[in-house]
């Protein structure tokens, strides 16, 4: 997916330790907002700060989020994970608003899915709410995770919060970041693999091992077995 911009500062984070300089740090790449990173730094309404490089690709509109989701959908489709954006409502929320809206604010710090629309009450219609202002690459990773949840809902899988399910959604992020294949995307993949969380981290590593043995098609069949006779 070549459209993703590569100005995100995570490359600097990947090859060098965090600065010990005093002062505010970027809420995404964690670099100190000083020197060349401070010229066009942005302060978001909820108090988060973005350095110049992260601010350059910050997604601040639902239209922007939908554009990223469209690219994510194309990437997942190439791997056999077909989850179109039709029937998905995309919303952006600030940090405090996301905390208030989320059914699990401890885990859902970047986004969550609501599988039922208040307008249609149809399970196939989903609403994805994600954190406002994320850099585009991080937005893509988060949307891939949430859109895998949409795939699961549409496949009739209602279980949530287990290592197998959450790890599968993290694996969807891995697939998208692998397609991007930039040093920045490799940094995101590094974080997925190194996540110490017993649900998302351990789950991702288990799914990765499963796919290495059975392939993506085998993984999808294990998640939602096709009806008998197919």
Helix run count:
8
- The chain-level mean pLDDT equals 83
Q: Largest sheet, order of strands side by side?
A: 3-5-4
Give a count of the beta strands, DSSP E runs of length 2 or more.
5
- Largest β sheet strand count, sense and barrel closure: 3 strands, mixed
Order of helices and strands: HEEHHEHEEHHHH
Give me the secondary-structure topology:
Layout: H1 10-15, E1 42-43, E2 49-50, H2 52-55, H3 62-78, E3 88-93, H4 95-101, E4 111-114, E5 126-131, H5 136-154, H6 163-180, H7 183-194, H8 200-223
Parallel strand pairs: 3-5
Antiparallel strand pairs: 1-2, 4-5
Helix pairs in contact: 3-5, 5-6, 6-7, 6-8
Describe this structure in words.
By secondary structure, the chain is mainly α. The protein has 2 domains: 10-55, no CATH class; 62-223, no CATH class. It has helices at residues 10-15, 52-55, 62-78, 95-101, 136-154, 163-180, 183-194, 200-223, and strands at residues 42-43, 49-50, 88-93, 111-114, 126-131. A hairpin with a 5-residue loop joins β1 and β2 (49-50). Mean pLDDT is 83; it is low at 1-20.
Task: Write a concise keyword list for the protein shown above.
mainly alpha; 3-stranded mixed β-sheet; two-stranded antiparallel ribbon; 5 strands; 2 domains
What would a concise description of this structure say?
The relative contact order is 0.13.
């Amino acid at each position: 997916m070549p459209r993703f911009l590569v100005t995100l500062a995570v490359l600097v984070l990947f090859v060098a330790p965090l600065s010990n300089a005093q002062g505010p740090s970027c809420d995404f790449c964690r670099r100190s907002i000083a020197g060349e990173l401070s010229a066009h730094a942005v302060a978001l309404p909820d108090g988060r700060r973005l350095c110049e490089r992260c601010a350059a690709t910050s997604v601040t509109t639902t239209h922007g989020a939908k554009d990223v989701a469209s690219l994510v959908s194309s990437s997942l489709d190439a791997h056999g994970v077909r989850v179109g954006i039709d029937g998905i409502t995309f919303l952006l929320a600030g940090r405090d608003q996301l905390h208030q809206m989320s059914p699990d604010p401890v885990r859902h710090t970047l986004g969550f899915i609501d599988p039922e629309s208040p307008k249609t009450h149809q399970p196939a219609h989903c609403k994805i709410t994600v954190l406002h202002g994320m850099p585009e690459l991080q937005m893509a990773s988060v949307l891939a995770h949430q859109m895998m949840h949409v795939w699961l809902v549409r496949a009739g899988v209602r279980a949530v919060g287990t290592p197998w399910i959450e790890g599968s959604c993290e694996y969807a992020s891995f697939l998208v970041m692998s397609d991007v294949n930039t040093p920045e995307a490799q940094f995101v993949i590094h974080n997925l693999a190194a996540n110490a969380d017993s649900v998302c981290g351990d789950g991702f590593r288990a799914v990765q091992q499963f796919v290495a043995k059975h392939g993506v098609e085998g993984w999808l069949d294990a998640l939602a077995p096709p009806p008998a006779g197919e």
